[in-house]
Amino acid sequence: MHKTNAILLGLLLMVLLATPLRAQDYPFLNLEANQLHYDSTSVTMQAFLRKFYRMHTTGQGNISILHIGGSHVQAGTFPHSIRTHLLGSYPTLVRGRGLIFPYSAAAKCNNPADYKVHCHEKVTLTRNVYKEPEYPLGLCGIAVTAHDVPTNIQILSNESQIDYGVTRVVILGHSPQGIVPSIRYGSHADTPPSYIDSANHRYVYNLMQEIDSFDIVIPCHEGEQFTLTGVLLDSRHPGITYHSVGVNGAAVPDYLKCALVNDLRLIRPDLVIFGIGINDAHGTDFDSVQFKNNYLRLCDSIRNVNPQCAFIFITNNDCYRKTGRRSYSVNRNGLQVQEVCYRLAQQTGGAVWDQFQIMGGLKSMEKWQKAKLAQKDKVHFTRAGYLMLGDLFYQALSAELAKDVHIVTNPTVPANRMGSLPRGLRRKPKSKPHGLTINPTPSEEHPTPATPEKNSSRDRFPYIPD
Fold first, then answer.
1. What's the distance, Cα to Cα, between the start and end of the chain in Å?
2. Does some domain include residue 303?
3. What's the confidence (pLDDT) of residue 441?
């Protein structure tokens, strides 16, 4: 395709993804608050913006973004909305899908919608919300363990808009018996790892072709086991990778239980978007000082890997506690979390996206529920609500990406990619493009994720269907 046509198509997608929300549609929103709040002298925020600008203008280099949280992130709709906006605005800078986890390989564990997972064999689930996780966990905070029988975990792309062109797969995991997984893709026979990094528990597969779906083949037999802690989908192309890591019910201390360093070194984030806090602040004995200190420990573990990593702290959404069969009371701890997030940003040189204020403040969740943007539990959102949050967050982020450095949100096609449609837009949508359609359709009002597993009393806010 001619360069001009490719750019025009990129502009069209950008328009579909960037239609502004109108205050009159949802009068309870505080759209004036929809911005990133940070000190303009922040070294790490400025370093991130400069790196993004250099990559955008040259078409070279990589940006790694990590979004980490609880059920709001595991469900996938909110982070994937941001991911789709970002990669749709910069279609020539699409890298791999990033770090994923095959959640629904285990029974009753909900998976993001942009990829599907099938596993017919029984696997054991371990999550960081368990008081004493049975198996060591990594950055994903969750693991599945195959044992005693050969196990096949199938990962199928369900993405209709973005072509990641995956050419490198890294399986994260460990086995006391030295079990080595293979992958199966296309017409190829089972493919062993190109190399094994035993010290960091990584199995690396350099592929002969670009793929979007494959099987993980784990050859366990009686008395043998292999624990899978994550999968990295990468490509040889320069550009943006947006990783999302979430565990239903997770609080900040739960991630502190995990061995994070090896996986952090693998993805080396330039920006971390923190969405943890809704579970920390659920109880009546919430300790804001301990909450802040736990967060600082988590920040330190990331900065030990990349001292220049920038942080964005998302405040809690307004929510309610269930006090009876049909009665709820507003959770005022959200106000304390909001204050802590600003303190964290000040101490770490980070930024705040004040979701609490943008929603409309205390008791605004009831208005979101009446607008069919939130579920009956008054904690989680409907699909339409999560899409709206993604729209709002990206509007705030994109304003910073375009600030001061005078960049536009649709890049010119780098010289080494001219002559064809930008790689990230090759695949035609199977349905209408994802955009800012915030009037919920009947299917969006009541999403039906799988009921979360019941193994732990610490499941404070698993993803609960309406």
1. 45
2. yes
3. 33
